[in-house]
Amino acid sequence: MYEVEVKVRADHEAVEAALDAAGAEFVDSVVQADTYYDAPHRDFAETDEALRIRRERDLESDDAGGEDETERETAKITYKGPLLEAESKSREEHETAVADGEAAAGVFDGLGFEPAATVRKERAHYRLDGYTVTLDSVDGLGEFVEVETETEDDDIEAAREGARAVLDDLGLDPAEQIRTSYLGLLLDGDAGE
Amino acid sequence: MYEVEVKVRADHEAVEAALDAAGAEFVDSVVQADTYYDAPHRDFAETDEALRIRRERDLESDDAGGEDETERETAKITYKGPLLEAESKSREEHETAVADGEAAAGVFDGLGFEPAATVRKERAHYRLDGYTVTLDSVDGLGEFVEVETETEDDDIEAAREGARAVLDDLGLDPAEQIRTSYLGLLLDGDAGE
Fold it and tell me: CATH 2.40.320.10: does it fit domain A2-188?
């Protein structure tokens, strides 16, 4: 399975109205803090690898009070290897949930890995026409909309076309696609509008 | 809190009878596989650090069949830093449960860490006089008994005395204490009797 994803800058207010009009289904809303690490023995920018700890909290549960809120915070560690094949953008990836994000950070710190940057964002997920539409508000960068789906090897082009059509339906211009990751934009100093 | 631990080689059959006679309470029985990693950028033998993935399975659940068994397998990652203070044997330690032990191994493999050795053992835990008595059958090494407890800073010597008294009650000789870890014994080629 491949992930097809198209991302553009977009003001959320207009997109929310368009999602509503199109009958999109709201899924959930979360806060994510992704900390990316530098390695002590390799330059990840050169090797095109990434080590990340993602902490996520369900926004809907904010009202539930202190203890519940903490229990709903989840953390994951993810390693992404170099691109294996440029065309499909496939890469080795290993990911697991961890019970204690702070302890996981302690493990990597102890081993000599250092936090390089943290990307913080609020994400609201919607379902529309078999696609996931994500409204991201990224600290320091601004508002974005991502349209994505998973597909088989031989349907990538069709899935990409479909994602562009969804953007078009939401009043957005697929030609304004941004291919740089949020981490890349932050490191490039590409501030929000 | 400090962990006080005394370990000796001992044939389990006699110890089980002694535990029974002393009224010890059986707690649980598990299988553990501990994989220790070499780092790509440091010699852990020199720096006195350790990186470990522990996979544990409840032995009692063996009868429950395939699916349940898998669900009861748990995994943890642990980093142990160098000794901070020789006297108390205190060191920096970070540990968290992970949902997927294979994925955690994939993360470390991807980062260039390599499995150095795996210690496999069956452990049966008992409670006796405020101490945990553990009967370990270690693959390639043989049978051991550990007596341990946690204690405050200023009670370490009393706790150690108590642990030796428990060994004595079980018909074992505290003077035969082994201070080398199972990993150390395995790497030393110290085969079981």
Answer: yes
